[in-house]
Structures are given as C-alpha cells and as structure tokens.
C-alpha cells in the first residue's frame, strides 16, 4: 500500500506541474529517446507482464477433452456426444509477479565507436556517426551506473496483468546529471570533456527534459481464468472417435479481451486389443488454434496473440456398474504463440514530455485538486508514433488429469482437475445420441 500511495503522489506531482506550467513539448531528440527507452522497457517487461494471461488462457482452454477412455471397437451406426465444457484456470502465485528490468548497458569503448569516431591525437571525439544512437547508448550506460551506485533503485517486483498493484521506475535527473559529469572515465578524464559544446549541451538538455517516472502497468488481481466451449464427438470407426470444438472470438471482459479457439482431435482405443481388460485405455491427440486480442493501459496498448497447441494424452477410465466412471490421464502439451504488441508512449510519459496536458476539473473530498487529461490538440497532439513488437513464445508442460463422471439416461455430467503450470478445473454436461 505504501508503494501504491507513493506512486500516486508521483503521478500527482507531474500532472500538477504539467497542468500549471503549460510547458512546451520536449525537443525531437528527447521524444525519440523516450520512445526508444519506452520500447526497451516494454521489451524487457511487457512480455513477463502480459505473457501469463496469454499462457493461462491457452492452458485453460486445453482441457476437458475426455471423460472416459472407452471407445467401442465397432458400432452398427455412428453415435454422437454433444457437450458444453466449462474450464476454470487457477492462477498460481508465481504468475502474479515478475522482476522488472531497466534498459541499461555497461560502458564499452568498442560499443561507443559505433556512434562516434574517437581520436587519440589529440584525444577527443572527432566526428559523430549517430547523435540519437549515441545519446540513447549513453543514457543506458548512465542508468546502469546509477543502479550500481544505488542512485537508481528499480522495484524488486512488479505485478503481471494477473497480479495486484503497480510499480514505478524512478529516474532522478540529479543522478544522471552527476554521472554525466563524472562517468565514464576515458584516458583519465570523464567522457563529457571530450565532447564539443554542441553535443555536450544536447546531452545535458535531454537529461533535463527526460521523464523521471515510468510507471509499469498495474495488475487486475485475478485468481481465476474462465472459459466455456461447445464440444462435439462422433464415433466409432475401428475404435476411433473424432472430436471437434469451436468458439468464435467473444469478449470475456476487460482483462481478457476477445478470446476464441477451435480444436480437432482423434481418440483411439488401446484396450480393444486386450481381452477382458479391467480398465479402459486410449490415446488421444488434439490440435487447437487460439486467438486473443486485448487493449491494456490508458494508452490502449494492443496485444494480438495467435496460438497453436498440440496435446497428446494417454487416458485411463474405469466404469463402476450402476455408479459412476472414474478417469485419469497424462498429457504432453506444446504451445506456440505468435504475439504482436502495438503501443505508444505511456500517458504519464506523454505528460512529462509536454505532449499532452492535464486540466484541473474539481476537488476531492479532502480539497485536493482532481486533474483530467485533455484530448489531443494541435499544440499538444500526444504521441502519434505507434510502435510494434513481434514476439514468439514456445512453451510445453506435462499435465495430469483426474475426474469423475455420472450418467443419467442420455445425459452425463463430469468434473475433473488438471495439474500443470496452470491448474485447471473443468466440467460440463454431455448429451449422448
């Protein structure tokens, strides 16, 4: 709670300053550096923040495939099973937090040579190859040294989209200003002393305008992920059943967004090859495709993820006459997710850069001002440059399943528990025709 209050005070301080001072937008180099820094933050932290949601929804949907291992070797006419399967994934604590990282780099003279030409006679920077690249690299070097010296202290943990609360990167300008004048040391002198006045002034100007606060996205505090799907099975041909499931993209709420999937599978009886087996045994392979689209944060950062899941399982079941069926399974799941993230600068960064402004719209019950971010205008257009990041995730797991089923005439109800990276409770109602 203390960290949350501090972060709210931080947000209040820069909104208040921005609203009253009406400062002009930062220069183009500072804005571009902020975009690069924001992109680096997203690449380092966006994946561990959002991935548990993507992984959790895929794992949750990859259950409820069977409630018996029995498949008749042959039938006079096809039979049909129509089910509505509900699945609830249980969010583990280790999926609720991650260790946030700041973009940083250790000083390396060979890396510096990518951006400048350094002359030894006399010592100094003789030419600049990439001003923005140089300042961006320098900023990472100063950030790294700030962390090493203790002047910059990144939060130890941050919430994922499934977690609770939020965390803030605090980047004091005073720390950067001090480091620029003393670090790194090259040939006995701070590097800034080799810079000409133009480059030196530009670097100091960027530090003066650069945002001091980057708030990481807060979590939605979710303990469960739920989804339901209609399922259709038909059999049997040589002891083999066909499974189909499909649900179009449907909005599952603000946190999950649009989620849809389809699946096709085949189950083959193994116990048919044994005379009078005392339990039923089958093998099943299922291939699924999933789709997830959502917007997160006040800047509506958009995530689109298309996943494919291959699941292979061994099923066991035992029928107790006039009672119920017990079933179990062991499966291997392989998940591949292609994700695209589209985003602009976080709103608080836009406010600090003077790209957007906030206006006082009233007072709270304690008399404190309430600010509202104003719509984009010609003078304060906001960040109009959308950034895109494409990422691929490969994940796999061994999953165990135990369940119980009970028939009532043509109806069957079932309930199961799946053990894996995301534990899942699944159950439903089946109609046998």
Task: Name some characteristics of this structure.
20 strands, elongated, alpha+beta
Give the helices and strands, then pairings:
Blueprint: H1 2-21, H2 28-61, E1 79-90, E2 97-98, H3 109-112, E3 116-120, E4 123-128, H4 131-149, E5 158-159, E6 168-170, H5 173-180, E7 185-186, E8 189-190, H6 197-209, E9 213-215, E10 224-235, E11 240-251, E12 258-269, E13 280-296, E14 301-319, E15 325-343, H7 347-353, E16 358-363, E17 369-373, E18 387-408, E19 411-419, E20 423-432
Antiparallel strand pairs: 1-10, 1-20, 2-5, 3-4, 6-9, 7-8, 10-11, 11-12, 12-13, 13-14, 14-15, 15-18, 16-17, 18-19, 19-20
Helix pairs in contact: 4-5
Word description of this protein:
The longest helix is centred in the N-terminal third of the chain and has 34 residues, at 28-61. α4 (131-149) packs across α5 (173-180). This protein has helices spanning 2-21, 28-61, 109-112, 131-149, 173-180, 197-209, 347-353; strands at 79-90, 97-98, 116-120, 123-128, 158-159, 168-170, 185-186, 189-190, 213-215, 224-235, 240-251, 258-269, 280-296, 301-319, 325-343, 358-363, 369-373, 387-408, 411-419, 423-432. It has a domain at 1-22 and 70-94 and 226-433: Beta Barrel (Lipocalin). It is built from 7 helices and 20 strands. The strands form 6 sheets. The chain has a 10-stranded antiparallel beta barrel. A two-stranded antiparallel ribbon has the order 2-5. Strands 3-4 form a two-stranded antiparallel ribbon.
